[in-house]
Design brief:
single chain, alpha+beta, 2 domains, 7-stranded antiparallel β-sheet, flat
Length: about 500
């Protein structure tokens, strides 16, 4: 049956409406798909741009020691993170490493794979130190030593095992940029990868490494070296090159191959001239004591601050074998001092002269039943500092009108520690000169620099001034004053101890 025009128009409108609805729905779905894809790309880009960093989980004050329990790992946008941010706690701990001589240990991420011509893997160690050393001719040079960990030689300390470290007795050999071709040098006629460290180029540590370079000449296929203003022919004994320096045989390493094309990984060919080096035997090694020096905040830092190496510094209080917690009750303290602040301990003489006995010491105020004690402080001192403090305390008793007191640092994280100016008595100086085994090598070196050589005259003048003030009091009176002062110390110690015991019983 034929449809009337009104029905056909209605059907047509219905179909057209459905078509438009489907088209709109398709456009919406297409738009949503595009948005979803873009969102996924943005999420993926955001995830790939994330970087894990260490952030503080609490606020810290300037000079406060930073410990790993104060830090949390957090993933943040790398575009807002400084390049020197600490990525994990191991980086923070590595940054705090020092050896017993006060040399900072460096770390370098040079453990990446380097394919040499023969396909072997080339790795470098991560720890190294750079030391300024003087040779027998008086020449000063900066030598680099790699630090190895001896995992098979464990030591028991405080109930836990830890690995020893050692370094070879000879420094790593550094190549100049002129010796390096496309990241490689020739050693013993073999191509070795090098890595740049502190502006020099180093290979793996070999038992035999090049030492002094000798100027070479070649004639008729034979090689000659210049030594002590004379020319000597290079000879060969099996695989060993050598020349005779008078009656002394000098073993050599030949580096480079003259007029021989050597293919390198990138396909380039190079020609190297022949160089000869004296052999230095690096098979001997020495155990190297490594310690972690506490890190402190340079400035006050808020919670959730991203930690970078520019916000922390190494404290001057090295954790050495002779470090002890010393409690004193005879130091005049500032009225507002609190635990965690840094002080200098000074001795003021009756004539107005004033000397620093110990510098940049973090203070701990002992508490009894949650209340700070009035006169007592605890500081960490090394053996040499304990001797200086004991001497200063005794001499303060000998000089009526003298004062042993503390001054506070304003920004201990930014301010360097002051150099002690107090010069002890000759008896105490003799203890330093006797090479007291309880005093670390670095402390002995600092004491020698402070009291001898260029500073000897100034130290003598200070000591003479202190002696003159002491001698203003009769010897018998000085002895009585020391006995009386020591007795008062003991009484205060016993009183504080009794209060502490009473607090425990309550």
């Amino acid at each position: 049956m034929a449809k009337n025009p009104m029905q056909r128009r209605a059907n047509t409108s219905f179909l057209l409406g459905m078509l438009i609805t489907l088209l709109v729905a398709a456009l919406i779905i297409g738009f949503l798909v595009v948005q979803l894809v873009n969102s996924r790309k943005e999420i993926e880009a955001l995830q790939t741009s994330k970087r894990t960093v260490l952030v503080l989980n609490q606020s810290v004050t300037s000079g406060q020691t930073i410990t790993t329990d104060m830090l949390n790992s957090q993933s943040v946008d790398s575009s807002v993170v400084p390049e020197n941010a600490f990525a994990d706690k191991n980086m923070l701990l590595d940054y705090s490493l020092e050896d017993e001589y006060g040399n900072s240990l460096r770390t370098t991420q040079i453990t990446k794979e380097v394919q040499i011509v023969n396909g072997n893997r080339q790795e470098f160690d991560e720890l190294y130190i750079i030391m300024s050393e003087e040779d027998r001719n008086g020449n000063i040079s900066s030598n680099l030593y790699k630090i190895r960990e001896v995992t098979e030689d464990k030591v028991l300390q405080s109930g836990e095992e830890y690995n020893k470290y050692y370094r070879y007795n000879n420094p790593e050999f550094a190549y100049d940029e002129a010796d390096v071709v496309n990241g490689y040098v020739y050693v013993n006629d073999q191509l070795e990868a090098v890595e740049q460290i502190e502006g020099r180029y180093y290979t793996r540590h070999l038992n035999e490494q090049p030492g002094e370079r000798y100027q070479t000449t070649s004639s008729g296929g034979r090689y000659y070296v210049q030594a002590n203003n004379t020319t000597a022919e290079v000879q060969q004994d099996g695989d060993q090159y050598f020349f005779m320096n008078g009656s002394t045989r000098v073993n050599l390493i030949k580096v480079g191959i003259e007029n021989v094309d050597q293919s390198i990984t990138n396909g380039q060919n190079v020609s190297l001239e022949v160089k000869f080096y004296a052999v230095q035997d690096n098979s001997e090694k020495t155990e190297w004591i490594i310690a972690q020096t506490p890190l402190i905040a340079k400035v006050s830092l808020a919670e959730k601050t991203v930690m970078t190496n520019s916000l922390v510094t190494k404290t001057t209080e090295r954790v050495t074998k002779d470090l002890r917690r010393q409690e004193y009750n005879i130091i005049a303290l500032p009225s507002q001092i609190q635990t965690g602040e840094y002080i200098d301990i000074r001795l003021r003489l009756p004539d107005g002269t004033d000397y620093i006995v110990a510098s940049h010491k973090e203070v701990e105020i002992p508490t009894i039943s949650g209340i700070d004690t009035i006169n007592n402080i605890i500081v960490q001192l090394s053996e040499d500092e304990i001797l200086l403090m004991s001497n200063a305390i005794v001499e303060s008793y000998m000089m009526p009108g003298s004062l042993l007191y503390a001054t506070r640092y304003v920004e201990p994280g930014l301010q360097d520690s002051a150099t002690p100016t107090y010069v002890p008595s000759n008896d105490v100086l003799a203890l330093f000169n006797e090479r007291n085994s309880n005093i670390t090598q670095i402390a002995l070196r600092e004491l020698q620099e402070r009291y001898t050589n260029a500073n000897a005259e100034a130290a003598a003048n200070i000591r003479n001034n202190i002696n003159s003030e002491i001698e203003k009091t009769e010897e018998d009176d000085r002895i009585d004053a020391v006995i009386e002062g020591t007795d008062e110390e003991l009484v205060r110690i016993q009183e504080e101890r009794q209060l502490y015991i009473d607090s425990l019983s309550n």
